[in-house]
Amino acid sequence: MLIDFEYNIYQLGKIKADIVGEYAIDCYNFLKNKNCIEKLMNMNQLGVIPNTSLGTSHNRYEYVILQIYLINILQGKPNTFTITNNKQEKFHLGLNSNHDVKTHISLENPTGAEILIMWILLFNSGHLIGTFASEKGFLNVLRNNEDFLNKFKKYIPKSLHSSLDTYLKQNYYLDFHKFISLFIINTNKSSTKDLKNGKQSIYLFS
Q1: How many helices (H) and strands (E) does the chain have?
Q2: What is the spatial distance between Cα 133 and Cα 113, in angstroms, rounded to a whole number?
Q3: Which one of 1, 48, 124, 136 counts the least CB within 10 Å of its CB?
Q4: Over its length of 206 residues, how does the chain's per-residue pLDDT go in tens digits?
Q5: CA distance 129 to 187
């Protein structure tokens, strides 16, 4: 099973990136069906900077593809930019090895690369259009609207409510996209096989 991308990165050129593995592919397809991938394509990562500097129009999707591409390099995959003659021998990161992580996520032995790619996809999908500025505003809305906050909390595990309260109290918006990602997953539990019996498909706060 394979999803492959070919993308032109400004000043880097054309790159090829692959998503390999059942769990990572399911994660990508789930987010695509929920229009999260399309959202990433329309999300300008650098705010208003492209209005003042040429060649800086990078969307969030491009950033995701570049991260997956770097994972491919560290895996030692062919058809990627060559750093050494034998990348696997140099890095020894165990990304191709299966890991027993069932204490944290409801998957059976995904590879290290799959785990990282799912994190990349889920964390980036949690960002709002406008990224950190919008998320800071969303935090303010939650903090000032108790009814809205209670509705949001319904889709956040109770074990994380105290962490959410801390984020609100300290106005900590830099990691708030993780809560938004978790909200997106849990509002769509019935449509994905990885979220049955109330289990989380990915342990976001490891």
Answers
A1: 9, 2
A2: 30
A3: 48
A4: 678 888 887 777 888 899 988 889 999 999 999 889 999 988 876 665 656 655 555 788 988 999 999 888 887 765 544 444 444 444 555 566 665 554 445 556 788 888 899 999 999 999 988 888 889 999 999 999 999 999 999 999 999 999 999 999 999 999 999 999 999 888 876 444 443 443 443 333 33
A5: 19
Cα(132)–Cα(126) distance, integer angstroms: 11
Q: d(Cα 132, Cα 177) in Å, to the nearest integer?
A: 8
Tell me, what amino acid is at 204? L
Closest CA to 176 of 204, 135, 141: 135
Contact, 134 vs 128, CB < 8 A? yes
Q: 62 φ, ψ to 5°?
A: -60, -40
Phi and psi of 5, rounded to 5°?
-125, 145
d(CA 160, CA 12): 40
Two structure tokens written together for 200: 């989380």
Which of 121, 143, 31, 104 lies closest to 67 in space, CA to CA?
121
Interhelix angle 161-170/146-153, rounded to 10 degrees, is 140
Residues 6 or more apart whose CB falls under 8 angstroms from that of 137 comprise: none
Tell me, what's the pLDDT at 193? 45
User: Rounded to whole angstroms, how far apart are CA atoms 5 and 72?
Assistant: 12
